[in-house]
Specification:
mainly alpha; about 0% strand; single chain
Length: about 130
């Protein structure tokens, strides 16, 4: 695999998808929505209905489906081409910002926020994916 860029890229994608799964578990176990939903509701007077609030079951179920779908896309990523590269950049950037957001939010609020424990893993895995894109 060391000499196969397509395999490295697919492996990096799979790793980031698995780390996202760990992050979802981290958020669920630390009651992320108990922090997120009240924060969003405090924005509502200025921002109308965006961003949305979530019910725990719908939120967790949706994220589980997302993580499974991302893992199942690994063979497509390995196939290469413009689509997989663009998808990888988008996935990498979003997860980098997600991890960074949890850490910056923790500093801003002066406490370790739900999901912050896996924030550094998201940053590292997203950087690995970005590095693997050819």
């Amino acid at each position: 695999m060391a000499g196969d860029p397509a395999a490295r890229h697919a492996n990096a994608w799979r790793i980031l998808a698995i780390v996202l799964g760990l992050h979802v578990a981290d958020e669920a176990l630390t009651w992320f929505l108990d922090f997120y939903n009240p924060l969003v509701l405090s924005f509502r007077p200025a921002w109308s209905r965006f961003p949305p609030t979530f019910d725990f079951d719908v939120w967790l179920g949706g994220l589980i489906v997302l993580v499974v779908a991302l893992v199942l896309l690994t063979p497509w990523i390995r196939g290469g081409g413009t689509g997989p590269r663009v998808a990888s950049w988008i996935f990498s950037i979003l997860m980098f910002l997600n991890g960074l957001g949890h850490l910056i939010g923790s500093a801003y609020f002066g406490r370790w926020l739900p999901g912050a424990t896996t924030g550094p893993l998201l940053i590292a895995a997203s950087a690995y994916l970005a590095r693997s894109i050819r």
